[in-house]
């Protein structure tokens, strides 16, 4: 038997923070690739401390639903899961190349494959691109468009910027968009001045965040000038300084994230059969995802 | 009522390695069989005689089939929980746990006196349904088909407050995942970050769940409670006491281990009381250092301070580092009493219940506004003077 644990942050204050975790877990449940699929959280229940003991499987794949390698993936999650032999060197990562480490959890005697976070997996690049497609409702979006990948910045974690730049570079190499830029909330180049960094009239802005919340639904739209007051919502696209900004919030809510979770587990040795195809099928409709994300934006919550 | 013949076949197949389950014994020696139930005993049976004899104890056979073939999972918390649901003897209950001790003292009400049921009693009861309470959940185990029972059980689940409601008045679900949404908000639509807070909304029902689905649903309502309950039952609940947990914290939570011991006791009294959380606090300040505060009577143990308590502890660690001062402020005796009533009303979550016109209650809104108008200055602060330096 094999189990997948999706380890996410969650929130004591905002019930929506865990929505993407549940949504992706459900998508993977539908595929039947794992005997057990379990959500686990830092701020909600089941907590990281308790999650492994709720499983019957002996092989457990833990994938952090986090954007970057850093404090949570390298310290908090392994510590709380009681992965006593854990050492960040086991990932031998430069900040964006974590793969997996096989360990035993101290309280249960099960094999734990502790995977790198979704945010730094190569498949994440596709999710960012799919986000641009869902934002514009155009599966061929690219020509005449600029793409801004937005991250928090270096204030809290230097690897967070690395993850943003990594995917930005990979998308740039694909030559699909006229321009691709990495922008940040807390460091230069700043998302506030988004229009200054693009010549293209149309710019898709994709924030590399797991869940919608304060940053993606309040800070960023106001900073970019999409709206005076986030509570009133904003148009997609919205006119700013002669540009059209296509913005629909956190990339982590994109359906294809389930595929990245699966790939992380498969890279660590999980048998997932045809599950990736099934997930791509389930998550592949840009129009459907747009309908969901615009209704969320519309209510301004 | 006849037992499906494949039950017999499967059972005879298994008999060579011996069956001993819930009072049923079947053994094979030199191609003859012996069969035993608490009521009867047969020896030296040929195979066809065994099959005949099995017909007279089909409750034991279908029971064996349900547990060993449908439920399976020997030693798992899932199985033990399902057995608890129908008051079957528990595999792990032989180990005396502190909880069992507590059960005998009569403080915990009905649960203390419930003896496990043997197969015939259980089968009788399963026709009407066996009810169990798990936190605010009421669980009924019953036969899938009462008239033609082949031993298959199904499970219904609702809020204890809805135990007497008609199903038509409840929102009926059959997907365990629906429990996540129900568990997210209380009756007033507020977010419940602590799943074991006694504020589960009512008005819903899950019906006809399989055993696996029931355990999954309970897991969405009260995550990890079944696993930790089972660990406690088998005598291997691993409790992380306050100090251990606090010292493990890093980042912004690094400060929580600075919370004075006395404050940890106040914290436990504030957060881990039955009125706030259905888990029974098993952690203390340290292994040999009892907090001296009641941990509550909940069914499922709390094995370490939860993330909500750690987050609150961080705030208290910061607040408790302040120095005490002496202030002087003018109040009438009634106003001092009123402050006490106000704090108490907020702490007990009673403010919503105070009627608008009930000005005898110190926490009445008009009374509170009056006190504010009278005693606060223009900046909205209490007019108090610090008298030490
Ligand atoms: S620490 Fe206290 S409030 Fe938190 S789950 Fe345990 S008993 Fe409940």
Automatic annotation (TrEMBL), chain A:
<keyword id="KW-0456">Lyase</keyword>
<dbReference type="GO" id="GO:0009236">
    <property type="term" value="P:cobalamin biosynthetic process"/>
</dbReference>
<dbReference type="InterPro" id="IPR050963">
    <property type="entry name" value="Sirohydro_Cobaltochel/CbiX"/>
</dbReference>
<keyword id="KW-0170">Cobalt</keyword>
<keyword id="KW-0479">Metal-binding</keyword>
<dbReference type="Pfam" id="PF01903">
    <property type="entry name" value="CbiX"/>
</dbReference>
<dbReference type="GO" id="GO:0016829">
    <property type="term" value="F:lyase activity"/>
</dbReference>
<protein>
    <recommendedName>
        <fullName>Sirohydrochlorin cobaltochelatase</fullName>
    </recommendedName>
</protein>
<keyword id="KW-0169">Cobalamin biosynthesis</keyword>
<dbReference type="InterPro" id="IPR002762">
    <property type="entry name" value="CbiX-like"/>
</dbReference>
<dbReference type="GO" id="GO:0046872">
    <property type="term" value="F:metal ion binding"/>
</dbReference>
From TrEMBL, chain B:
<dbReference type="Pfam" id="PF18069">
    <property type="entry name" value="DR2241"/>
</dbReference>
<dbReference type="InterPro" id="IPR041181">
    <property type="entry name" value="DR2241_middle"/>
</dbReference>
<protein>
    <recommendedName>
        <fullName>DR2241 stabilising domain-containing protein</fullName>
    </recommendedName>
</protein>
<feature type="domain" description="DUF7348">
    <location>
        <begin position="5"/>
        <end position="72"/>
    </location>
</feature>
<feature type="domain" description="DR2241 stabilising">
    <location>
        <begin position="119"/>
        <end position="232"/>
    </location>
</feature>
<dbReference type="Pfam" id="PF18009">
    <property type="entry name" value="Fer4_23"/>
</dbReference>
<dbReference type="Pfam" id="PF24039">
    <property type="entry name" value="DUF7348"/>
</dbReference>
<feature type="domain" description="DR2241 4Fe-4S iron-sulfur cluster binding">
    <location>
        <begin position="235"/>
        <end position="315"/>
    </location>
</feature>
<dbReference type="InterPro" id="IPR041346">
    <property type="entry name" value="DR2241_Fer4"/>
</dbReference>
<dbReference type="InterPro" id="IPR055772">
    <property type="entry name" value="DUF7348"/>
</dbReference>
């Amino acid at each position: 038997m094999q189990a997948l644990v999706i380890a996410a942050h969650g929130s004591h204050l905002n019930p929506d923070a865990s929505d993407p975790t549940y949504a992706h877990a459900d998508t993977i449940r539908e595929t039947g690739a794992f005997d057990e699929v379990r959500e686990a959280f830092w701020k909600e229940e089941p907590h990281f401390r308790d999650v492994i003991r709720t499983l019957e499987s002996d092989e457990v794949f833990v994938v952090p639903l986090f954007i970057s390698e850093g404090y949570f993936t390298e310290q908090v999650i392994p510590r709380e899961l009681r992965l006593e032999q854990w050492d960040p060197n086991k990932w031998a990562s430069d900040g964006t190349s974590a793969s997996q480490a096989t360990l035993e959890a101290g309280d249960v005697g099960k094999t734990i494959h502790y995977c790198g976070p979704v945010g730094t997996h190569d498949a994440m690049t596709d999710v960012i691109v799919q986000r641009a497609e869902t934002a514009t409702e155009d599966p061929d979006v690219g020509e005449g468009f600029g793409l801004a990948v937005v991250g928090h910045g270096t204030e809290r974690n230097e690897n967070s910027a690395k993850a943003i730049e990594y995917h930005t570079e990979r998308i740039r190499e694909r030559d699909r968009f006229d321009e691709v830029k990495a922008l940040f909330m807390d460091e230069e180049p700043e998302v506030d001045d988004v229009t200054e960094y693009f010549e293209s009239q149309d710019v898709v802005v994709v924030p590399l965040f797991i869940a919608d919340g304060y940053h993606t639904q309040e800070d960023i739209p106001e900073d970019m000038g999409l709206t005076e007051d986030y509570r009133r919502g904003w148009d997609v696209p919205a006119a700013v300084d002669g540009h059209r900004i296509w913005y629909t919030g956190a990339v982590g809510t994109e359906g294809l994230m389930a595929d990245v979770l699966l790939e992380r587990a498969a890279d660590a040795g999980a048998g997932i059969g045809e599950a990736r195809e099934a997930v791509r099928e389930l998550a592949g409709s840009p129009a459907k995802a747009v309908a969901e994300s615009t209704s969320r934006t519309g209510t301004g919550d | 009522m006849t037992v499906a013949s494949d039950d017999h076949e499967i059972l005879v197949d298994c008999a060579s390695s011996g069956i001993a389950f819930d009072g049923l014994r079947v053994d094979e020696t030199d191609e003859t069989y012996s069969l035993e139930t608490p009521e009867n005993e047969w020896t030296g049976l040929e195979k066809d005689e065994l099959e005949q004899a099995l017909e007279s104890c089909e409750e034991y056979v279908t029971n064996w089939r349900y547990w060993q073939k449908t439920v399976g999972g020997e030693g798992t918390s899932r199985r033990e929980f399902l057995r608890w649901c129908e008051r079957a003897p528990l595999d792990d209950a032989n180990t005396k746990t502190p909880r069992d001790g507590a059960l005998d003292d009569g403080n915990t009400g009905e649960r203390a006196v419930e003896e496990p049921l043997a197969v015939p009693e259980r089968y009788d009861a399963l026709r009407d349904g066996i009810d169990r309470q798990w936190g605010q959940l009421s669980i009924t185990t019953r036969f899938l088909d009462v008239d033609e029972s082949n031993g298959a059980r199904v499970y219904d689940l609702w809020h204890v407050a809805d135990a007497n409601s008609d199903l038509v008045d409840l929102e009926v679900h059959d997907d365990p995942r629906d429990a996540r949404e129900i568990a997210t908000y209380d009756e007033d639509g507020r977010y419940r970050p602590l799943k074991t807070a006694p504020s589960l909304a009512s008005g819903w029902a899950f019906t006809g769940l399989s055993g696996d689905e029931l355990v999954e649903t309970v897991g969405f309502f009260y995550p990890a409670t079944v696993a930790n309950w089972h660990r406690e039952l088998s005598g291997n609940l691993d409790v992380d006491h306050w100090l251990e947990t606090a010292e493990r914290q890093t980042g912004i939570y690094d400060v929580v281990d600075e919370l004075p011991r006395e404050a940890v006791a106040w914290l436990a009294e504030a957060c881990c009381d039955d009125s706030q959380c259905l888990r029974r606090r098993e952690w203390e300040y340290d292994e040999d250092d009892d907090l001296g505060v009641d941990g509550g009577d909940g069914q499922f143990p709390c094995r370490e301070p939860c993330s909500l308590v750690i987050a609150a502890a961080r705030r208290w660690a910061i607040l408790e580092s302040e120095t005490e001062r002496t202030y002087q402020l003018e109040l009438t005796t009634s106003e001092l009493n009123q402050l006490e009533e106000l704090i108490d009303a907020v702490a007990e979550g009673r403010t919503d219940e105070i009627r608008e016109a009930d000005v005898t209650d110190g926490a009445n809104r008009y009374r509170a506004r009056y006190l504010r108008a009278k005693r606060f200055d223009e900046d909205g602060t209490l007019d108090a003077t610090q008298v030490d330096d």
